[in-house]
Design a protein that fits this description.
CATH architecture of the largest domain: Alpha-Beta Complex
Helix content: 25-40%
CATH superfamily of the largest domain: Creatinase/methionine aminopeptidase superfamily
Oligomer: single chain
CATH class of the largest domain: Alpha Beta
Number of helices: 9
Mean pLDDT: 95
Structural class: alpha+beta
Shape: elongated
Largest sheet: 6 strands, mixed
Radius of gyration: 24 Å
Order of helices and strands: HEHEEEHEHEHHEHEEEEHHEEEEEEE
CATH topology of the largest domain: Creatine Amidinohydrolase
């Protein structure tokens, strides 16, 4: 945690203070931003205020009085609710505009961690509460050079694993036979051999299962993969370091045959949508113009809408990527949410439009991008044709 950097960001945003609040680990963002132990035993409310100017302050319950001792600032203790109210009033004296983990109308639910009652209480004190969404992005999603290097390490390994996986799938499908779960196991073992770690998955979806964008094959429900099938692989991982950054991609292909005209049409539409989002982000970065997540989503979604497939594009265009695969920064989204958060320099995110026909097949093309103050780069291979497996 860098108090001077947070205070500078508050001043730039014309915000008087950032108020952190938690009870029973309702706000994991607070623990991460403040570098608190996420396993800390917390049964009572605590508050931590970082003003735009001056020293931070702490408000803690007497029986858990040491919970914030790792943080700088004066400490006030309470026991009764009356003491809490009085101490909170005193803590916020001098601050009018206060950032909290809040989103109006829960529009960006990823940062909407503070309960409605607490928001009401602070508003009753005459305070204007604003969303900390962009502050969270700045201090949780912006990557160091070392973190970016870990992303590229994972990228090189996973791109190679995916190419080898498609070859293995084709050989098995034409000889001994295989299925979705068997290929998940093969890919998982390849990730382990390369020293990577990941959360659940990867995903291999065959035929109609590829139309379920969050399908997870198991040993019991796995579909055979045979010549003639359409296949989607979604794979992700990172090096085993606490701050390492994920690499996350999706490719599609057909086994032992050329693609049908319909498959080719959908692939062309999806990849044009992907490339439109890439181009929008790159143009904004080159021009040093801000671009929000919803604007990048619009660029991709308009291509699919104009092609007549809008109702089958059922998810956001992309998500932030960091030490968590779905990170705390801006998502490329104007469908599930209207994500007004900016795609900040030195952040990583996916671009992954898809079209899904239930009972038939689904196609998604996913790449990752990293921005800098002057450019945006696709970090790995870009699929330009359906894989001939």
């Amino acid at each position: 945690m860098n108090i001077p950097a947070i205070q500078a960001a508050l001043r730039d945003a014309n915000v008087d203070a950032w108020l952190f609040y938690d009870h029973h680990h309702r706000d994991p963002l607070a623990y991460s931003i403040l570098s608190l132990d996420p396993a800390m035993h917390v049964t009572r409310r605590w508050y931590y205020l970082i003003p735009a100017k001056g020293e931070p302050s702490k408000l803690v319950h007497r029986i858990e009085s040491r919970r914030l001792d790792t943080l700088p600032g004066d400490k006030v203790e309470y026991s009764s609710w009356q003491e809490l109210d009085a101490a909170l009033d005193a803590m916020l004296t001098g601050s009018t505009t206060i950032a909290m983990q809040y989103s109006p109308r829960n529009a960006i639910m990823y940062v909407s961690m503070v309960d409605a009652g607490t928001i009401e209480r602070i508003r009753e004190m005459g305070k204007l509460i604003v969303s900390s969404a962009d502050l969270v992005s700045q201090f949780e999603a912006v990557l160091t050079d070392a973190q970016i290097a870990t992303h590229y390490t994972a990228q090189e390994k996973i791109d190679r694993i995916l190419a080898e996986g498609f070859k293995e799938m084709g050989t098995r499908a034409r000889t001994s036979g295989t299925n979705e779960f068997a290929m998940v196991e093969w890919l998982s073992e390849a990730l382990r051999r390369e020293g990577l770690v990941w959360e659940f998955g990867p995903n291999v979806s065959c035929g109609p299962n590829s139309a379920d964008s969050h399908y997870e094959p198991t040993a019991d429900n796995s579909r055979p993969i045979r010549p003639g099938d359409f296949v989607l692989i979604d794979i992700w991982g990172k090096v085993p370091q606490p701050s390492a950054v994920y690499y996350d991609i999706t490719w599609t292909g057909v086994v032992s045959r050329p693609p049908t005209d319909r498959e080719q049409d959908i692939f062309t539409t999806v990849t044009r949508a992907r490339d439109a989002a890439i181009a929008a982000v790159q143009a904004a970065c080159t021009a040093r113009q801000p671009i929000a997540g919803y604007q990048a989503d619009d660029a991709a979604r308009s291509v699919i809408r104009n092609a007549g497939y809008a109702e089958w594009f059922t998810h956001r265009t992309g998500h932030n990527i960091g030490p968590d695969i779905h990170g705390a920064g801006a998502h490329l989204d104007n469908l599930e949410t209207h994500d007004v958060r900016l795609l900040l320099p030195n952040t990583c995110f996916s671009v992954e439009p898809g079209i899904y026909f239930p009972g038939d097949f689904g196609l998604r093309s996913e790449i990752n991008m990293i921005t800098t103050p002057t450019q945006a780069t696709v970090t790995g291979r870009i699929q330009t044709a359906l894989v001939q497996i």
